[in-house]
Give the backbone structure.
Amino acid sequence: MRRPVALRIQAGLATVAVGAAIGLAMQTPQASAATGSATGYATQNGGTRGGAGGQTVRATTGTQIHAALCNRASSSTPVIIEVQGTINHGNTTKVSGNSCNTAAGVIELKGISNVTIVGVGSGAVFDQIGIHIRDSSNIIIQNVTVRNVKKSGSPTSNGGDAIGMESTVRNVWVDHVTLEASGGESEGFDGLFDLKDNVQYVTLSYSILRNSGRGGLVGSSESDRSNGFITYNNNLYENIDSRTPLLRGGIAHIYNNHYVSLHESGINSRAGARAKVENNYFRNSKDVLGTFYTSEAGYWQVAGNIFDNVTWSSRSGDTNPAGPNPTSNTTVSIPYSYRLDGANCVPNIVSQTAGANKGNRVSDGNCTPTTPTPGPTSPTPGPTTPTPGPTTPTPGPTNPPGGTNLSLGAGADGSSKGSGTSYGNVIDGNLNTYWSPSGSTGQISVKWGTATRVSQINIRQASGGGTIGSWRVLNSDTGAVLASGSGAGGVISFAATSLRKITFDITAASGTPRVAEFETYS
């Protein structure tokens, strides 16, 4: 019978203790300032540059981190916070100011943008205190350790998540971090890396996640499908029960990771999620890919993975492993370039590069570690200019273009919905019904079961709502921005694109807008 997480961890710690007793010495490289540039989905939607171009501030306490945020001219003024030493409950208090919204007992990044937090010198350890990102964008967290964050027992922080993101978060790069617990939920711990409630364009790279019941999730429930465009690359997942990660809806790219001792399940794609899983190395683990604990299926595209001593359950009920011979059941188009190591060298390259205090080394794409160049230093206004540059059309008249409205008979979903409104109202052909987001901004999507060619949309607003300010049209299959502009209420044209889901993203509005119809045309 499998031992509980806490017992497995004790065995591992005993091994470390023996090594120390016989005089085993390990050299730890000095932690270094932010290096390299964002990779993966964090490069999309305008890119992720953190606090590049801003003032550099040194912090040795959580209170000083909060003060660095609160002392800025505005909540979007770039800042690089270099952290050294141990951050804990005793030195993390709330700081007030017009450019921040902090809290005691947690590193709170709320309602802000353009921030880099990087461990330097002898290293930065967040001990029993989590990092919480909410309603924020363009954030970099690099070269730090976050350990033993609990949701029950004492002390507690961040709902038990080492790093947690929620509620309209965009463009975050988490790189060369070590996230670890000392047990599972029964010991008071939750997830190491959790994303929920409309979190998009995130990359977790060259990091270690270990000794936890739960690695992390994307989406808090089967209905929380507004998250996506997440990249996981060159990470080590070790001694974890499940969720490496758990995906609910959205798209993920998972490559060149090393998975060791996953005890119950690994990559759990469900509720319509689609994952591209390539050139990973799975060892001494169980059910490393599939749909588990639900009847709502997810999908995967697989290539180049190595399964070393992996066991698979029989399919039954809500247990649907991809193995023992995983094959693809979807295709996922990746919009960015990336370097891909062969799976056979992944254990070696990850051991040399992943985690905090490794000199921020990365793979050169040929199974050799290399040190990246310093990160960007020029100012950035945050992820507002899409890449590649979309067209900026002028909204046309409210009369629809010629042809068939492809939205009729399609499906719809979105990021949130106001009281008494429905996603389905935008595809019912009735101008007297409408959808509204729960606030002034939000996303509404039209989706089809198969790829559909679209070159125009027509947004028809209902009377009585707020005026739409800035907006974007997104290819939800890839995250690409098809068009952007300001003021809506008419025809928007763009290059013809074959896709399964298209999203109208309202990024600014006066009041709460009302969308009566989201029409689509070929």
